[in-house]
Amino acid sequence: MTWSGIHGTAPATRWQDAYLSGNGRHGALVFGDPYDETVIVTHHCLTLPNGSRTLRAPDVAHRLEQVRDHVLAGRGDEALDAFSDGRPTQWGESFHPAFALRLRLDPADYRDYRRETDYRTGVVTVGWVDAQGAWQRDCFVSRADDVIVCRLVAPTSQSWAKLSLDHDVWLPGAPVGLGVGAFGGAGPGLASGIRGVLVSYPVRDGECPGYVGVTRVVVTAAQVVLLTRVARCDPDDQRPDQLDRLVAECERALAELPDDFSVLLDRHVALHRPAFERVSLELDVDPADRAASVAELLAKPHSPALLEKLFHAGRYHLLSASGIRPPRLVGVWQGDWNAAWAAGFTLNANLNLQLAGAVNGDLPEAVFALDRLIHDQLDDWRANARLLFGARGIVSPTHTDGQNGASIQLSRAWPLHAWTAGADWLLVTLLNYAAATSDSEYQRRRVIPLLVEIARFYEDFLTRRDADGQAVFVPSYSPENAPLGGVPIAVNATMDIAAARHALSAAVEASSAVEASSEIEAGEVSRWRALLGALPRYRINAEQALAEWAWPEAIDDYDHRHVSHLYPVWPLHEISVHATPELAAAALRALRLRGHENDSAHGYLHQALVAARLRDPGLVDDMLTEVLSRDFCFDNLMTSHYPSRDVFNSDASCALPGLLLETLVDAEPGRVELLPAVPDSMPAGRLRGARTVAGIRVADLRWDLRTGVVEAVLESEVAQSVLVLCAGAGPRTVEFAAGRPEQLSWCVRRVGVNPDGHAG
């Protein structure tokens, strides 16, 4: 694999452009100033108490039938009133940085400056030369030891005499009443020892008191090594000495670590590098362009070199932000206390898109982080189902701070608590992982029990029927849209129907596995099968497009950033060009009619993922062009939510590798299609290591659509027969033996898309 990383020739002047490192728990944002370095320290669990930790969903299930009557009668405003307990919109606790480490030296003239992030190791390096000689600083966040490691190597030992380290560098937006106490290391110069901070949140009854940050300083003649760790207080432990006890625990843990930078780095790289290198992508890139600085890459937004680099950056960001939790809206990095949307987890598109490349990109670290988020919140999800809908089972919230999983965001404009499809969407990633790895035991233990709970929810929820005997989804919500001229709380959102069909079907299919453990009650499977037969059919509207609501009175509003109604296309495979061509044509029509509303980056990536499934490489290219040419990328190749680098947000960065993989490989059980929607910006290249839900791993794929030559090496962990297609060439049935590579080659023609959406 060629060197994978980024470099620049100037320090960052704002936190959004700092170079990033992380291990799924801690994060570090490195500015890179030679003589006044700032390293912002973050931790996934740091959220500012705001009184929301113990909130629960509104207890309105006793008014559910009234809500339904209002919605069906067209009295949406009255339905919104009835489906609320009157509370204002409430956000969860907001993610914030811990503090900033600041390393200061006397300034001097310098030259040959370079800062870089090596994605293979997770190390951020800053180097420069001045009159004393060559300097180097390195920083990484250890996946092995859960510590932020910084090292400064100076030309002479006398350089340490005027080096100072500050912990109490406070960042914009810190709340009034924040208590900060620094300890250790007073006076000029830097000596070995312990330094740190104790931070108390503004007093709130029953809330988490605060957190600590501790740095062990090791000074030798050759270098300075800093080992930093953050720990948050237990919200349920209100003992007054908790901060002091956390400091003592951190000090003991840091004292047990070796102070040799190379030893710490080797232990970390042994875990990080194999994970990052499981999948690689090389496009047809001039080596000089591949070696260009970030500024040079961004100056050529249509270059395949930038696209290749963004693939690597997105995998790095997803891996680095996945650990105890999957990526937040900001990954695991935040440089002030004013995080947009509380920098939590938005579950109706954002997190789902960030995880688009978790399975096919072979990053189980992200899958297991999602698994932990789901299972840690199940009690809240059960309470959501009971309090809002009077039902058994589970209903996920639309937004969570990572701790509280209750549906507490009540809003007339966005009645997020009326959305029932969230749990299914999150479980798709877990199901896909089980299929890709042939891990039936994981599916049985961790996924099927949740599918059973979703099936039970829909059994209790879908009690209304229309004149044809079909189930009616009411209230129903299509994130974050509303029928034209109507209110967002509506009837038969297409996404809700698709989620119910998928969850019920998966639960029925898995019933034989769970019956052995007595997790399914007598008669449940037959009731779920009957309910599947009563689900509404999708609707094709007057524009011959798949409608966002399968309800005749609902008129589509096409100018919207979400494409929730195309959920049956992506991430599901319910609608596909080869199996359901008429619905696929209607879905493609709906996609082409869709606007972009406020130009959110996640909207472009979401549309591109659907376009790839519908075999429209031209539309994929159009969406990529929007993202690459409208200044969505910061100097660290993290992305913004809006154009012109407005609002630091990891949606597009983490989603982009998943999109590129979708254009190169699409799969269903028993079927693999290579190069299904390769855009013109990727005419040739090489992919290695991608997984598929067919249980087939793409060990190697080389393509050049200019010559028509395609070569592939495919592997299966189990013996199976699979239909393999490639870029319009005739299908082949390949008999895979477990673990035996199969070498295939094609001479293909370029696949286009006819106006009606059918591949041709």
Question: Nearest-angstrom radius of gyration?
Answer: 27 Å
Question: What characterizes the major β-sheet?
Answer: 9 strands, antiparallel
How are strands sequenced across the largest beta sheet? 1-8-9-10-11-16-15-14-13
Shape: globular
Q: Distance N terminus to C terminus?
A: 35 Å
Low-confidence stretches: 751-760
SS class: alpha+beta
Helical content class: 25-40%
How many beta-strand runs? 30
Share of residues in strands: 15-25%
Overall average pLDDT? 93
Word description of this protein:
This protein is α+β, with helices and mostly antiparallel strands and 760 residues long. 30% of the residues lie in helices and 22% in strands. It is built from 19 helices and 30 strands. The strands form 7 sheets. It has a 9-stranded antiparallel sheet. Helix 17 (601-613) packs antiparallel against helix 18 (617-629) and helix 17 packs parallel to helix 19 (651-664). The longest helix is centred in the middle third of the chain and has 22 residues, at 440-461. The radius of gyration is 27 Å and the shape is globular. Residues 751-760 have low confidence and may be disordered.
Give a brief rundown of this model.
By secondary structure, this protein is an alpha+beta fold. The chain is built from 19 helices and 30 strands.
Q: What are the salient characteristics of this protein?
A:
alpha+beta, 19 helices, six-stranded antiparallel sheet, globular, 22% strand, 760 residues, nine-stranded antiparallel sheet, disordered C terminus
